[in-house]
Amino acid sequence: MPVEVGAPYRRRLRQALDDEAQRTALDRATARLSAQRAQALAAVDNPRLRQNARAIRQSAIQDLPKLLEQLEANLLTNGCQVHWARDADEATRIVCGIAEKSRTRRVVKSKSMVTEEIGLNHALEALGIDVVETDLGEYIIQLAGEPPSHIIAPVIHKRVEDISELLQRELGMPPTDDPAVMCAAARKRLRQEFLNADMGISGCNFAIAETGTICIITNEGNGRMVTSMPRVYVAVAGIEKVVHSVEDAALLWQAASRNATGQNVSVYFSMSSGPRRHGHADGPDEMHVVLLDNGRTRMLERGYGDATLCIRCGACINACPVYREIGGHAYGRTPYNGPIGAVITPLLADEPASHKELPFASSLCGVCRDVCPVKIDLPRLLLDLRSDIVESGATPRSERLAMKAFARSAEAPARFRRLRGLARLASRLPVRPPPLNRWARTRALPPVPRSGFLESRKRRDRDGRGEPRG
Amino acid sequence: MSETSEPVRPRVALFVTCMVDALYPGVGNAAVELLEHHGATVLIPEHQTCCGQPAFNNGYRDEARRMARHFLDVFTPLIENGEVDAIVVPSGSCVAMVTRFYEILFDETKHPHDRRRAASLESVTFELTQYLVDVLGVTTVDSRFPGHLTYHACCHLLRELGIDAQPRSLLAAVEGSEIVDLAGADECCGFGGLFAVKNSELSTAMGRRKVRNIRESGADAVAVNDVSCMTHMNGLLERERCSCRAVHIAELLNAGGDRDAG
What we know:
The complex is a heterodimer.
Chain A: H1 9-18, H2 20-42, H3 46-62, H4 64-77, E1 81-85, H5 88-101, E2 106-109, H6 113-117, H7 120-126, E3 130-133, H8 136-144, H9 160-171, H10 179-196, E4 199-202, E5 206-208, E6 213-218, H11 222-228, E7 232-238, E8 242-243, H12 246-260, E9 268-272, E10 286-292, H13 296-301, H14 315-319, H15 323-326, H16 338-348, H17 367-371, H18 378-391, H19 397-410, H20 413-428, H21 436-440, H22 453-463
Parallel strand pairs in A: 1-10, 2-3, 2-4, 4-7, 5-8, 7-10
Antiparallel strand pairs in A: 5-6, 6-9
Helix pairs in contact in A: 3-12, 9-10, 16-18
Chain B: E1 11-14, H1 18-23, H2 25-37, E2 41-43, H3 53-57, H4 61-80, E3 86-89, H5 92-105, H6 112-122, E4 125-127, H7 128-135, E5 144-151, H8 155-160, H9 165-172, E6 175-179, H10 195-198, H11 200-217, E7 221-224, H12 227-239, E8 245-248, H13 249-253
Parallel strand pairs in B: 1-2, 1-3, 3-4, 5-6, 5-7, 7-8
Helix pairs in contact in B: 4-6, 5-6, 7-9, 11-12
């Protein structure tokens, strides 16, 4: 049974852990992506690449207000229409307004997590507009009626055999396990969608302030068609996507590609600087850019600015030992999962407490920080979020009391030593009290010795001999 | 002042950690014996308790601060008075707590005194194998382990402290053993403190992967530097009926050598 993203956290976790097909798919894909990444980074001076990528992102965030003004001015000069959206509702209203005004019936989209973030497809569909995802992975999950489970590889939770079955059912494709055949079957259908579409919608990887350019990274060429074939093109960009220059974008493009898929650079890098101009053979009649805040400013204000440096490469997700077991849907109704998702999902939400489990769904192993191309200290951000959640009073009363008692006893060594005796007693009970019961369900408890190290040392010193008394 | 021309023995304070104190006195004894064998004088402060990591990792910073202050009360004077030169800890994650996370707990403006005290410990607090190799210069150990041995890199030790070569070099010096590769040796075992009970099924899934890799390695023992990870791995190894066990590196380095003969 697939994971229901709308189910409570515990149920999602259980469903994910029980889904053997998904676990096989995740094992295969995360291992492959991580290996490809390692190879691509071995070919370059990765410490320097990280240093530079981080510096570029930091400088952009430092200059955010100024860069956004510059971006807006240059987009306007290029003939774009610029819209500012405070939150998801405002952003979907803006895009729906553009669709209505341009009498849009059909929309083609390139893969975009920010439009998932704001629930754009549902809003457009509610107006009776056909919305078709054109990235192969996104197209597959759209056919399956599921949300993406990974920011780079949205269908990572499905095995190739599951995808084949789906395409046979939905597109009448003959049985095959050859990805090229599956791709061709989808492409044939999608070509018609491109030709019929009134509007193309993309996200944005980088928005270049000095030229007024929206950049998207793709591998299938669908992005270029989305941005150039329909008469209206709408790009939705988180405000943190802005960078100073073309050079900055080029370096981040490389960093993202190597870290995401292990490519030197992606197959396509589509740069859109406005609608079709006089004398141009193609391009949209209108180009709109929606600049979205939706919690990003709040993230900066609350001291989580590091999270806005993210370039959405997914390296932390592929490396994460938690994600590998449960996949993206277990993180709930959010397109952002894995370590970065556990940080930004609660921060972007109106109600951070509605995602309060996510920052705790990590063993803090730190591999995410080690692989991050912009050196985001994700474990540190998770620790800070945990502290915020505790301070907001959202953790169970029993836990709060236990922590208080534990801390108090640690200040009184004699009392602290007695905890061992309690543990010894508890571990011997036929029915173990929490949290020991949750440990002991799958793991043996270690025997608790009769006396602890410090106690027996003390006794040994007092007795002046080498053996503790029996 | 020393009146003889004998080289001065380094003096260290052992922070044994609350888990070793409560559950694994043998690991504590092995750490003491190892340090003494390699020339250090070991002081064991009686009033030590916990570094505060369990509270800190779970977001309870007020509680963590109280525990950290107690740690500072016990250990800072020993360093300041020159009673010891270093604090040695048989755990990577507890060292990380002191040398990396106390800085987060003690804000420069709000807690300047504790911040200073914590900072004074940063460069003198060592994980056991780090101290043996980097400070004492240990290259050989008098220990024997008959069988296949492998190494699991505990997360905080490896990724917070960057300690990896030290324990591996000491293990390579253990006599009678053959070191075998462990696939995913640097991947988390799934313990993660309260994570192991708050997300017990997820933690177990991560641990079972570790068990599969251990089984495939053919090792008789897995050396680890943290008893927390050791407890988790052994809890699973036992339930999964795998005869291999995780063993704290102090016990391995102190095992079956000349000192223990007979």
